[in-house]
Amino acid sequence: MQKTRFPAVVSTFIVSYAFWILLTWSFSAQELAAGAVVSFLVALFSARFFIHERSFWLFNPLRLLIALFYWLGVFMVELFKANWDMAKRCFGGCKKVNPGIVKVPVDLKSDYAQAALANSITLTPGTITMDIAEEDGQTYYYIHWIDVQKPSGKEAGDAIKGTLEKWLRRVWE
Amino acid sequence: MLRIIIDVLIVVGAFFALAGTIGVMKMPDTFSRMQASTCITTMGVIGVCLGALLYAIFIMGSPSTAVKVGVIAALVLTTNPVGAHAIAKGAYQAGIRPEKRMETDDYRRDFDE
Amino acid sequence: MTDLLIFAIFFAALAAMNFYRLVKGPTAADRMVAADSADILISLAMVLFSLYTGRGIYLDISIISAMLGIINTMLVGRYLDKGRWLYHAEDNH
Prior knowledge:
The complex is a heterotrimer of chains A (about 170), B (about 110) and C (about 90). Chain A has six helices and three strands. Chain A is an alpha+beta fold and about 170 residues long. Chain B contains four helices and no strands. Chain B has one domain (about 1-95). Chain B is elongated, with a radius of gyration of 19 Å. Chain B is mostly helical and about 110 residues long. In chain C, about 40% of the residues are buried. Chain C has one domain. Classes of the chains: A alpha+beta (about 170), B mainly alpha (about 110), C mainly alpha (about 90). The interface between B and C is large, with 47 and 46 residues.
C-alpha cells in the first residue's frame, strides 16, 4: 500500500474544499470552518488513492485551460455525433446492430491520461471500455463496439479514438 | 426569447432520453442495452441541465440553484462511465453472453480459453 | 411556467418505461442498467420540478439520488466480477 505524502494531502484538501463550497454555497464563518475540518479528514484518509504521481499537476493554469477546451469543445462535438448515430439506431427499430469486442492499442503512458481516455470512450454512446491489459510494454483496451466496421488493431483504434488521444496527450504529457 | 431557448434545450434532452429508453427496452442483448443507456446519461443530462442552468441564472436569479445544477451535471458525467465500465466487465466475467455469438470477440479469445 | 411541470412528468414517465426492463430483464446486469437509467431520469425530473416549485430541497435530494445510483451500480458490477478487484489491489502495491 502506498504511503500518504503531505503534498498529496494538500492538493486533495483543496479539491474537496472547493467541492464543499460548491455544494453548500453559503459563506458564513461556521460553515467554512466545518467544511475545512471535514475536508481535511477526507484528504487525510483518501490522498493515497487520489494522487499517485506529481501532486500539483491539477493546478497548472495552462493545462486547466487546455483540459477545459477539450471537455467543452472537442469532446462535445464527438459526443453529439455519437448520440445522433445512436438515436437513429434506436428509433429505427434496434435491428441495425453488429456488436463485438475489439482490442485497440493505446500509446498514452500516464495513469490519469489512460483513465481519462477510457472514460471518454465509455461516455460516447456506442463504445464501452471493458478492460485494460498490458502486454510487452504496450497498453491495450478491450472495447465493446456496437457496430464493428474494422478488425482489431490500429484501424479500429483510429475509428474509435479519433482526435481524442492527441488532445489528452497535450493535456497530461 | 430566452424561454424558447430553454425549451429547445430541454426538448433536445427529452428526445435523447426517449431514444435511450426505447433502446433499453428493445435492444437484443445485454451489452447493446448498456450502450443505449449511455444515451440517457450524456445528452439527456447535458440538455436538461443546460436548460435548467439558463433558467436558474436568468429567470430565477439565484446563483446557488445554478451552482447545484452544474454540480449535478458534472457529477453524473464524471462518475457514470466508472459504473458503466464496472458493470460491463462484471457482466462479461459472470458469464453473461449475447444469444447470437458475436463475430469479433477478442476478449473471449484472450481470457476464456 | 407549466412547461417545466409537463417535462418533469414526461421524464418520470420515461423512468416508468425503464421499469419494464427492470421487471423482465433476464440477467442481473440488465436489471441494474435499467435501474441506473431510471435513477438518473428521476434525478432530472426532480431538477425540473425544483425549478417549477422554486424550492431548493429537491436539488439536494437529486444530488444524493445520483450519487447513490452510481455507488449501487459499481457495487453490483464488482459483485458480478466475483470480488476480484480486492486481490488485484493487494498485488499491485
